[in-house]
Structure to design on (364 residues):
């Protein structure tokens, strides 16, 4: 991994504001799954903004990689409740997180790239499900504003039956090419039911983020679910904050994120006072020569890393994609997989090799 970023990368302006207070006119955004209104809802329910914070730990062992995926959406409509379906390679554990995480990420990137000028996440047991044939309910609990059920479909069409039983519109038979792929790979779905969000037709509601912690099933591939977004109609934008101990492959080889339509907005680099290729101490920014000037401005981020990964070091990479067409994503062979910046352009990432969890994205 290079020790310093090219100068031109440091001069890029931030394109995306985080949250409703900073939201730029980006249009409808969706990238992680699909929002499902109640089955008798006749209005328009739109996911207006979606972003993610990813914290990734690779592994030398097959199947040992672990990832934290923090998702946040902004929704507008008149429904009093709705569901949100997101696929995962393995069963995730869900926790509520603070929306301030995204504002602090945005403010940090903004400061680096621009010259100076409800409910409290309490957990409780949810009511038990009546079984649906073809759907295994792996877990169900209340996480903040969400009733989170993690389910695995074992028969074609069973997920739709389960959604219908829960009172929500179904994905439809036309979704089988996408849902069936997840079923065949043994993926599960986190189905989030939101109650009492008090949505209004002309006023977006910013819902608190959820953190999902899960094993990716591989070694070096960073997972972000996108293919279910191909089931919607409108183009969408994606904004990802990725924390990892290395830089990410941008265009070094065909496994780089630019070949999926993403571009770099910002990434941490090593200044002269930094130890090369060592990452940054996000759990103790006041002690890090690169972060210390910002340490008082990101208390929520600092507490997150102190809680989850004290002492670990990461580079933050902020990548974005704008105006992605759902039909294009639906034609992908797999979800979005990101990889480390291996300096050998001929090196094939472990998870992209034959039999790897991300191999389907690059068919031989």
């Amino acid at each position: 991994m290079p020790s310093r970023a090219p100068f031109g990368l440091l001069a890029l302006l931030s394109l995306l504001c985080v949250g409703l207070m900073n939201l730029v006119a980006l249009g409808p955004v969706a990238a992680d799954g699909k929002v499902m209104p109640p089955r008798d809802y006749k209005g328009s329910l739109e996911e207006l903004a979606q972003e993610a914070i990813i914290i990734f730990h690779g592994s030398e062992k097959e199947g040992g990689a672990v990832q934290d995926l923090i998702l946040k959406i902004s929704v507008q409509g008149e429904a009093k409740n709705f569901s949100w379906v997101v696929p995962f390679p393995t069963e995730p554990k869900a926790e509520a997180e603070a929306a301030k995480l995204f504002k602090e990420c945005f403010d940090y990137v903004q400061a680096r790239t621009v010259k100076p000028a409800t409910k409290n996440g309490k957990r409780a047991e949810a009511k038990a499900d009546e079984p649906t044939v073809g759907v295994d309910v792996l877990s169900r609990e209340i996480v903040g504003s969400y009733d989170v059920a993690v389910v695995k479909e074992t028969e074609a069409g069973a997920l739709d039956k389960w959604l219908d039983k829960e009172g929500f519109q179904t994905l439809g038979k036309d979704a089988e090419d996408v849902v069936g792929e997840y079923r065949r790979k043994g993926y599960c779905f986190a189905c989030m039911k939101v109650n009492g969000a008090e949505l209004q037709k002309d006023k977006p509601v910013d819902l608190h983020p959820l953190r999902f912690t899960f094993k990716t099933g591989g070694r070096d591939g960073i997972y972000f679910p996108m293919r279910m977004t191909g089931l919607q109609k409108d183009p969408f934008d994606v904004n990802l904050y990725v924390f990892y101990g290395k830089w990410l492959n941008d265009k070094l080889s065909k496994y780089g994120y630019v070949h999926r339509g993403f571009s770099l907005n910002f990434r941490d680099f090593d200044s002269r006072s930094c130890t090369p290729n060592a990452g940054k101490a996000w759990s103790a920014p006041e002690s890090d020569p690169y972060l210390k000037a910002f340490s008082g401005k990101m208390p929520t981020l600092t507490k997150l890393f102190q809680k989850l990964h004290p002492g670990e070091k990461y580079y933050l990479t902020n990548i974005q994609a704008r105006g992605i067409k759902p039909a294009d994503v639906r034609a992908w062979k797999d979800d979005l997989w990101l990889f480390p910046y291996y300096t050998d352009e001929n090196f094939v990432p472990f998870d992209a090799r034959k039999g790897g969890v991300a191999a389907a994205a690059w068919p031989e």
